Amino acid sequence: MERADRGVGLGPPAQVKNRDIRWRTRRGNHVVLAHMCITKAAGWLLALALACASALGSAPAYASCFKSTDPAIRELQNLVDRDATKALQQVRERMDALALSGHAGAGLLAPLYAVQARAYGILELDAEARTAATKGLELAKLSGDPVHVELLSAYAENVYDAAGMAAAIKSVEAARAAQTPGSLAGTCLLITQGLVEYRQDRPDLAIASLTQAYRAATRSGYAEPRIMAAEVLSNVMRITGDYVQALALNQEVIDWDTRRGATLSLSVSRFLRGKILNLMGRFDAAIEEFSQARSLSVQVDDTQGIAYADLFVCSARIELGQFDLAQSTCDDALRVFSASNSADQMKETGGLLARIDLAQGRARDALNKLNEVLDRGGADLLPSRVAALYQTRSRANAALHNYRDAYADLAEYARRYAAANDAEQAKTAAAMRARFETDREIERNALLVRELRVAREQAQRQELQLRWDAVAVACGVAVIALLIYFLVANRRYRQQLVKLASQDGLTGLPNRRRTAELASAALAEANAAQQPLTIAIIDMDHFKIINDRCGHATGDFVLTEFARVGREALRATDVLGRWGGEEFLLIMPETTLEVALANLERMRTLVFGIRLPSSGAGLRVSVSAGLSTSTRHGRSLDEMIARADAALYVAKNEGRDLVRVADDGYLSTTSIRRTIRQ
């Protein structure tokens, strides 16, 4: 923050340079610069132009908004805050060392030029700061490079003429357009833009830029840019009359300076708080803040800060009617300003002392002081302060009965007051419009954020619902797949059960129950179609002897091989089933006895091919069979089976390895056997 902000007579955002000498103290440094040598005519014109462009107070000046990742450069950046002169010396030493080593590349020099520009700016060496920034920008040309942004900001913040500030605004806006919205670089450039707009006496534009930067700097890691925005914005709010906001923003800066232990910066922040309270008419509170600022200035031996605090304490005490105390503090301030030949501050102090003289009945002394202060018709003073000086001189002339002069001064006061009031109202209206538009933009942004949040929540709910739907579908598919699996498995299990219940486990042929079912079905179909059905009961000859001599394994082998041979010898429509033990039932639909005999003969021939082990020497596998047909022996399955069984016994009795056909004489197995015995 420029210490010149302490001076009421100093102009706006640092456009008004002290005409006789330039004295400004910025954060951590104060320096007396050489006299400005200008002619009286040129000086008067310059003062007039600058005074017309002035506003209340001056703008802050900052160290780096970016902190370098290079520890050495970062240390220099921090040193600029503490001692800019020492920082400049170290920068020069490093540049000289790089030049001697032959390693003075752009990547090493550009950051040093950025530090140099900031240090010059804090020391109010504006031309030197711009020169350093220009040299650095020739090396760091990429708009996305933090060093480029830092150099551009340093250049813009050290421009004070109208054309230069307009060009700086264009450069900053172009650089901002190349940055990512909300980025640190964009936020720092926005603060620079707001600062220059403040210097241009455009609080409406400054409010919009700085409010946007202040809100953008709320994110993590943006603490210093936020404080920088708050400090400038506090000044803008102060000159537009929004003292509540100005105090709130100023308190943020005070808290920041207190935490960092920045004594000189804290003295400036306290001083500015006193100015806000003074404008609010809270003079006792203002005196307390000015007194704290003075104590802090004493700690760092800041004589100019002490003088400014005394000056404003004097002003507040005058408003409270404490003229003797005011006289003392104003005299103290005047001694310091006179020693440094600070003409603007001397005139400001003279105006306050004139008010004290007038209040205490010393009208002649008051008039003399006011004539000195208004020696240039107020052209070298702030327009807002000149009107009050003419009013005070009018009162002094009236007290001395110089009514003509008093009337002239009163008329000049009215004219200047009206002009200043109109300008102030226009400025306030513009600032209010800017704040209104900013608030509307913030509200629109907040609405968009809310809508975006609602849309995001809806999308999340929809996504969650889709996930649950997908889970439900997956579960449904899994359940369906499981049901299908269970159904298929159950069907297979049932098929296996049916197979086990209807199939002989050894031969794989239908078992007795299944064979009987197939025979009944075949007989029903034959009766319905009036087609013949022939069945045969087949028995393995000498099977018990084979089992006894060769073992049960051989017996099982013989049965299995017979089942295989039978399937090979029979037609697809014939059914061979195991009837029990070594007996089998053969069902031959649509088959006459002649065809059935041929089938059995073919089977008997194939059975001869079943070989027995050596233990069965002298034995061979053969079968005997009995036939029965439905066309000759009625339509009952039981009767047909009985007749076939009777024919089998005949074949057995006649020597085995024979096929016999049942006739009408074979009524039952029992009668056959009885006939055979007879």
Structure description:
It is a single chain. With 678 residues, the chain is of the alpha+beta class. 68% of the residues lie in helices and 6% in strands. It has 25 helices and seven strands. It has a five-stranded mixed β-sheet, sandwiched between helices. A hairpin with a 2-residue loop joins strand 4 and strand 5. Helix 9 packs antiparallel against helix 10 and helix 12 packs parallel to helix 14. The radius of gyration is 59 Å and the shape is rod-shaped.
Describe the structure in brief.
Helices cover 68% and strands 6% of the residues. The chain is of the alpha+beta class and 678 residues long. Strand 1 and strand 2 (29-35) form a beta hairpin.
pLDDT < 50 runs, ≥5 residues: 1-61, 665-678
Strand order of the largest sheet: 4-5-3-6-7
Number of helices: 25
Kindly provide the radius of gyration, computed on alpha-carbon positions and rounded to a whole number of angstroms. Answer: 59 Å
**What is the share of helical residues?**
55-70%
Number of strands: 7
How far apart are the termini?
146 Å
In terms of DSSP E residues, the strand content is 5-15%
Give a short account of the largest sheet.
5 strands, mixed
Question: Averaging pLDDT over every residue, what do you get?
Answer: 81
Shape: rod-shaped
The helix-and-strand class reads: alpha+beta
